[in-house]
Amino acid sequence: MGMMVLSKYYGADFQKMDQTGERASEEMRNEIRRREPSIRPFIHEDKQAPTMAGDKDIQSERETQVFEIHGMKMLEAGIIQLAGNNKELCMNSMLSAHHALRIIAGDAQNRREISVVPEEAQNVLKTGGSVTTLLGKDSKEKVEEVLKHQKLNKEARTNKTGNSAFDTNNQQQMNNQINNA
């Protein structure tokens, strides 16, 4: 029953989902944040992530903290609702907390992936070889595509350079034959 609820919430077979594969769009992140006002009556304290502390602060870490706090708020509200036997609101709070935690796990996984892939492929992962055990399926496909194109471009440049050297050598041989004749 629980897996069915999660599958319905995410619109996919939950048991087949990559638990660190959530790459939430800005729209989805905003949708999750919009759920907070509905739980304010249930929570003891309105926790907030500290504002940015200047240029040296890390925006992605603050974003992670915002979602961690959202998860804590939703779990707190869910516990209170469960104690009050309000199963529907409890379920909504738990699903929202679960989704926030999936986003946190996905963001952390994305940062790990970016740190281990070749520099040429990092930009593909920021929009969202031997590291296949770490990368998620979508990320593997993106990296493989970038590396394939990079290899083809390198081979094309090598062939062009090689052909130019070959052509120059042939031209010199022909010039020598003409001059010796």
From TrEMBL:
Region (Disordered): 154-181
Biased composition (Low complexity): 169-181
Comp. bias regions, Polar residues: 159-168
Protein name per its UniProtKB record: Uncharacterized protein
Natural source organism: Streblomastix strix
